[in-house]
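2024-03-11 09:14:02 INFO receiving multi-entity request
2024-03-11 09:14:02 INFO entity count = two
2024-03-11 09:14:03 INFO echoing inputs for audit
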Amino acid sequence: MTLDWTTRFSARAAGMTASEIRELLKLLDRPDVVSFAGGIPDPELFPADAVANAYERVLTSNERKLAALQYSVSEGYGPLRAHLAEGAGVGVENVLVTNGSQQGLDFIGKLFVGPGDRVLVTSPTYLGALQAFSPYEPAYDVVAMDEEGPLPDALEARLAAKPRFFYLVPDFQNPTGITVSLARREAIVALCARHGVPIVEDAAYTRLRYDGQDLPSLLELDRARAAGEGGFDAAGNVLYLGTFSKTLVPALRVGWVVAPADPLRRLVLIKQASDLHTSTINQMVALEVAMTTLDRQIPRLRAVYRERRDAMLAALSRHMPAGVSWSRPEGGMFVWLTLPAAVDGARLLARCVEGARVAFVPGAAFFPDRSGTNTIRLSFSLAKPEVAAPAIGRLAEAVGALAQ
Amino acid sequence: MTLDWTTRFSARAAGMTASEIRELLKLLDRPDVVSFAGGIPDPELFPADAVANAYERVLTSNERKLAALQYSVSEGYGPLRAHLAEGAGVGVENVLVTNGSQQGLDFIGKLFVGPGDRVLVTSPTYLGALQAFSPYEPAYDVVAMDEEGPLPDALEARLAAKPRFFYLVPDFQNPTGITVSLARREAIVALCARHGVPIVEDAAYTRLRYDGQDLPSLLELDRARAAGEGGFDAAGNVLYLGTFSKTLVPALRVGWVVAPADPLRRLVLIKQASDLHTSTINQMVALEVAMTTLDRQIPRLRAVYRERRDAMLAALSRHMPAGVSWSRPEGGMFVWLTLPAAVDGARLLARCVEGARVAFVPGAAFFPDRSGTNTIRLSFSLAKPEVAAPAIGRLAEAVGALAQ
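2024-03-11 09:21:47 INFO inference complete, emitting structure
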């Protein structure tokens, strides 16, 4: 007689089910399949020697080695916080170190969201954010996007319903690759402040720009706005999520949140209750590697990923049948395809397991309402052109066959 | 005009306030104060060279170094899970790696507890567990303890109310130092299984035994019970929390949960949504250090901490006035003092800031109902006898003065 655990869990556990897509993608983790699925950095580009040197320096320093291995404060390692605060133009008291930016998303859900509370997201949006927020049982409101980002009129209509916050990936969005234009950024910051709805800005990909000019972050625009109203702590309206996972290495699990002092203090209490603090030694190593290699690492990443993006876009132009459109991202890791309405992305993936030997993520998972069934996300971060181009050709054939 | 963030947070955030005790203890972090407050390991006992060697081995291994720095699965690093599963007598599928056992407590709260759900704890209990569970808004039920652990009659009465789980630290409990006797363990396992109430066993201190014989864990007793009913996955009733923080080093942030397959799978989904995974490289290093040094490390820790415990107990006997009683723990890090009813632990601490120059944690924080105001917790893990003995003398004088 097996125990029925489902009756023992909280109501929120009912919504926790393994993603079918993830299960399917596990099957596709085979050497003969070309994967455009994961949004992960290329390990061949990791600054592995710099990381090894940093661990060695920290652990051979008589001043630092015991502190590096001991419990530390929930806020994060002081010198790392100071470094991050300087980069963001805020005070040390505005920075919390987290286990990657995913943990920042979880904590923001925990702080702001109770059952039935409205949370505003773009449609589509980052799947991991939906996974982080959903255990707190929000009702999602969505705002549509065009090539310049969220549509201001649609945003304003949604803000009137007073969602707990508006979550947005403004640069090279996961999954669409869309970058929010400067004019839209200014409109979003002004509208959200006027309606009293905090913005959660996810900047995971911001440093990975391959074309065009860097744009000011929503945080930066909001700080300028708040400067006239008593400063960031008094009037700031943005919670900003940063990470070293895309620029240095993911496995240190070091990200950060920047926020006005009041919500930041609450996030520190949440951090303490959740896992006490982020690995002390990893914080010290992240700071060392950031200070010694980030300036060299960024141009290197940009050159390699730019070439892969260009090769993928060229292959798409060459091979994709009429009726398929896609984004042309200025950075990040993702190209977003819209297929003919009759082509279901999940069905296409299932077919590609055997035939085309290509993997990707069907787009519906990124829509809170599971619409967008005729979309797919391709990552080019691991896509070496000589392998990727023929794989795009095979994918195009599979799309053509299903579109018949 | 400053924004009022409190109106923007979820209902659960209302209960998140910084601990007054913690704020007071920050003030006491001064070189002239002898602190018996924190329950932290002595950094002079860290296997720092072994940790440094492990990082070097992992990061100079061509096979492992890139994987060590990359994203990895939410369940945890396979060889570490296998090692932990073998130690616990369960399958790999029963183990999830977490950021210390504190994260296991948070995840168990997230999985089981919704607003108003009953959670059963001993009174007093580990403060960090209350902090982990409280954001999920439980109603605490408490069961009293004597020197052998929770009282079975009281436990049975509480189980009838069907709490979501019973949380217990059976070995050298934080804060009391109490170890649950074998007879009580058997009673607790049987009673909880009969009433269908899962046990959450926190084994943070289990390896730090200085006297007497190791006792079977509740997990072990429950596995034996479940063996007759289809096995651990079918009928197991214990979720077990382990950690390397007290035996190796805390800063790796590597702990683990052992549970039947059904709740374990849900905890993996929670891990994924919360922070994707625990630092890959730290998991590899924890495994290396555990395999190469844990067997040497444990006797070394036991010898040093045993001496400190003995010195503290001797000093208490020598100095404490009549009307003060204390526990005589067989292991762990804590001695628990019950003062005369008129002596308030928080008031005593405030007085000790200037006068006795001794710090400790007032006991009320460990009671869900904030009773136990005449109790205090002393940690001996950092208490070198030559410094600790006179400090206990000064503390005893302060107690005597307040008891007048």
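2024-03-11 09:21:48 INFO post-check: Chain B touches chain A through 87 residues (CB under 8 Å).
2024-03-11 09:21:48 INFO post-check: Chain B has a mean pLDDT of 94.
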